[in-house]
Design goal:
Structural class: alpha/beta
Strand order of the largest sheet: 2-1-5-3-4
Number of helices: 14
Helix content: 40-55%
Order of helices and strands: EHEHHHHHEEEHHHEHHEHEHEHE
Largest sheet: 5 strands, parallel
């Protein structure tokens, strides 16, 4: 049995799903997504693959009998270990392969570097638990045709977002994604200096364009307008609001339609940049380890 760790917001879920599908298309044994985190915690917008795309991947919660699964979730909530540890405690000879250091497992554990493409991981013998996010464009590139058929976002039906999409289609627009929220808590938010430099470069690369700002903290962006370099857009700037909660995917859709993109250090906007199929796109990317 092969199991892929599965958690986080939409961006993380998409990259973990891509790894899952890559495995399915390149190996003969079954693989499951470990959705225990969505039973244990209530973060972001929960499990989104079925709601948004109608996808029904193999979920580990469906593998176990309901009463067994409920017990395993209760054990995890009480600090008795997550799925991989519980399976090892029950006698499974499961091995964990992890690209993240924040793991708690007292069995056989092997690390690989994060944000890299490791196709050699597919087809390993035995019971393997893959603990990672696999945020690398090569996983998508290898099966892009399949993924683009499966990851089809719902149409934009409300007037406000349809109008923004129309503006994007008729102009050389640049999306600016500014992620704050939980990134502030973790201390990994991008600096004002990064955005100031990115805006300086983008206004040179794409002059007289319309900039669209996407953020989970629009009021902060407006207060720090000059520090972020947003004043360089002059009057050609739109602050996109109203796409919170289960509508947050709409920001990803709109960003992915823009010719220019200033992306954050998040899986959400990185996926938007990769999902963007424009051959003339211009992307300013803060991560040296995540190629576009």
């Amino acid at each position: 049995m092969k199991i892929q760790y599965f958690n986080g917001g939409l961006g993380n879920q998409l990259f973990q799903y891509i790894f899952y599908r890559y495995y399915q298309l390149n190996a003969s044994d079954d693989i499951y997504l470990d959705d225990m985190k969505f039973f244990k915690l209530h973060e972001h917008n929960g499990y989104e693959l079925k709601r948004l795309f109608g996808l029904t991947p193999n979920l580990i919660s469906d593998y176990f009998e309901p009463d067994v699964w409920d017990y395993m979730v209760s054990v995890a909530k009480d600090g008795g270990g997550d799925l991989c540890q519980q399976m090892k405690n029950m006698g499974s000879d499961i091995i964990m392969v992890a690209e993240t250091k924040n793991v708690s497992f007292d069995g056989q554990l092997y690390f690989v570097k994060s944000n890299e493409y490791h196709p050699e991981l597919v087809g390993l013998p035995g019971n393997i638990y893959y603990h990672g996010y696999w945020i690398n464009k090569e996983w998508l590139s290898a099966i892009r045709e399949t993924i683009m058929k499966e990851i089809v976002f719902p149409p934009l039906t409300d007037a406000k977002n349809a109008e923004i999409a129309d503006i994007i289609s008729k102009n050389n627009c640049v999306s600016v994604h500014i992620r704050r929220g939980d990134f502030i808590k973790w201390g990994i938010e991008l600096s004002e200096e990064f955005y100031f430099g990115a805006m300086t470069n983008m206004t040179v690369a794409m002059p007289a364009t319309t900039f669209l700002v996407f953020s989970d903290d629009i009021p902060w962006c407006k207060r720090n307008y000059q520090e972020l370099g947003l004043d360089k857009a002059k009057d050609n700037i739109i602050f996109v609001t109203g796409n919170e909660g289960d509508k947050s995917y709409i920001d990803l859709v709109l960003m992915s339609k823009c010719r220019g993109m200033i992306i954050a250090n998040s899986a959400f906007s990185y996926f938007a940049a990769l999902y963007n199929e424009r051959s003339d796109k211009v992307v300013i990317n803060p991560s040296k380890r995540r190629d576009i």
